[in-house]
Specification:
The chain is α+β, with helices and mostly antiparallel strands. The protein has helices at about 15-20, 25-30, 35-45, 90-105, 120-130, and strands at about 5, 50-55, 60-70, 75-85, 110-115. A 5-stranded mixed sheet has the order 1-2-3-4-5, sandwiched between helices. Helix 4 (about 90-105) links the parallel strand 4 (about 75-85) and strand 5.
């Protein structure tokens, strides 16, 4: 397998959506508004240079990994990182994270955070290995402004 990365485009939506549906943790993180085709198109318009897709050069139409990262000019957030279960443990997630971090640095961003479900042990271990520390002095607060978006737990 020869892995390549490239920027995400709106045309990649179907492949990304299929990838997200390949794993329970990603399905759990999606919502019907922000992760719809229209929601992702809007996100990519705001963040055209910080989102990346991984594919195998032998099958360039199959999305095997994706990271959606954006920022507000001060801080960045990793909104989605997913690697297909059949392609894990090959360094793809690390490549995606490094590519996104490099793109954020080029845009002058010096801090990035991500949200991980507490019960997702493998993901929490991965982020710790990448140098992302666990903040225990903050509470994450959430308010849904759209009835179609789940409020969370």
């Amino acid at each position: 397998m020869s892995i390549q990365l490239r920027p995400v485009t709106a045309a990649d939506y179907d492949g990304i959506f299929a990838l997200w549906n390949s794993t329970e943790q990603s399905r759990r993180a999606m919502n019907p508004v922000d992760d719809s085709r229209e929601g992702i198109e809007k996100y990519l318009k705001r963040n055209p240079s910080t989102c990346f897709l991984a594919y195998d050069t032998g099958d360039p139409d199959r999305v095997i990994g994706v990271i959606l990262t954006g920022h507000d000019g001060r801080r960045a957030i990793v909104h989605h990182l997913c690697v297909h279960p059949d392609c894990r443990r090959r360094g793809i997630a690390r490549l995606l994270v490094r590519q996104a971090e490099d793109a954020l640095r080029q845009e002058g961003i010096s801090k990035v955070f991500g949200l991980v479900f507490k019960d997702n042990g493998p993901a929490n271990a991965f982020w710790e290995e990448q140098g992302y520390s666990l903040r225990t002095n903050l509470n994450y607060r959430n308010k849904s402004l759209n009835d179609q978006v789940p409020k969370g737990e």
